[in-house]
Amino acid sequence: GKLFPATDISLAELLQQQRQTDRLIQAFWQPLCLAIMNTPIQEASATIFIQVLSDAFLKQRRDADLLFPHHDLGALFPEPAMQYIEQQGGHVHLGMRVSALSIENGEIRGVHIDNTFVPAQQLLLATSVRATLALIQEQKALAPLHAKLAQFHFQPVTTIYLQYPPEVHLTQPMQGLIDGCAQWIFDRRHCGQPGMISVVISARGPHMDEPKDHLGKRVAAELARLFPHWPAARAQFVIREKRATFSSSVNINRLRPENRTSVKGLWLAGDYTNNGYPATLEGAVRSGVQCAALIDDETR
To answer: Quick check: is 76 in a domain?
Structure first.
């Protein structure tokens, strides 16, 4: 409705149109944008941002629940999914890389795994944009899809792990920060790692050019100012994921493909497909469920 702009614009532009103050943008909207979309507010799609807010806050109360896992995501999603597939008579093969697709007369025929050909009438590529591009680049029938995916840009996520004595903790599982380099801090006590504090910095920024040791010390100094009663961190470890998510920029939805491809029997699933959400687990799950329903209808 009225929430959505007629044409996609940046979230920064939308907020200026809505007369949001500079301080409110800096202290509220910008951190929220980075948390949801991992894209700078000057580039972020207002359409996607509003879609997420609408689904979270304008429907059912439970849609806004904030969940904190006590186990790693592998134990929450992939491992139960593998067990379910095997219980239904399917097979899961790990450590095997698909090297090529086999397409004939506009239909999928199977995949090549190293020197082995595996025939298939229905094939679902639940791969990243980069992996999908590599698999379809030699397929003329998929040239339009390749041209669109090649226009995607990506954003990093940086995580700084700081090990404190076990008694160090936050008053809640996570906390947002403003006016510094650190954006979000998480108390990993809830994951069975007392004293481990992880600090997340979303999207591009000057921090990407800092030496890891320097960045870790700078973030530790920020926390020392915010929590002066904490002792010094005993150790630090920095991880930079340079292509963590696709950039949810203005008009990105024009490039996002549907689950069904132009090749009969070949399907796509992943957060980058046209599911209305940014690069999130929710978007990936939505895409997978949507694609499974389409395949089910197709094969009945």
So the answer is: no
**Residue 192: burial class (beta carbons within 10 Å; 0-12, 13-18, 19+):** exposed
Q: Minimum mean pLDDT among 69-78, 136-145, 150-159, 279-288: which range?
A: 69-78
Q: Output the CA angle 51-57-59, nearest 5 degrees.
A: 90
Of the candidates 69, 63, 29, which has an alpha carbon nearest to the alpha carbon of residue 49?
Answer: 29
52 with 127, same domain: the answer is no
- For residue 69, give every residue at least 6 positions away whose Cβ sits within 8 Å of its Cβ, in sequence order, or none: 76, 191
Q: How much is the mean pLDDT over the chain?
A: 95
299 has a pLDDT exceeding 90: no
CA 260 to chain centre: 21
Distance CA 200, CA 161 (A): 9
Q: What is the pLDDT of residues 84-129, one digit of tens each?
A: 999 999 999 999 999 999 999 999 999 999 889 999 999 999 999 9
The H or E element that residue 238 is part of is strand 235-246
Our CA dihedral for 265, 271, 277, 283, rounded to 10 degrees, sits at: 90
Q: Which residue range is the domain that position 277 belongs to?
A: 90-152+249-299
Q: Are 146 and 255 in a shared domain?
A: yes
What does the DSSP assignment read for 27-91? IIIHHHHHHHHSS-TTTBBHHHHHHHHHHHHSS-GGGG-----SS-HHHHTHHHHHHHHHHTT--
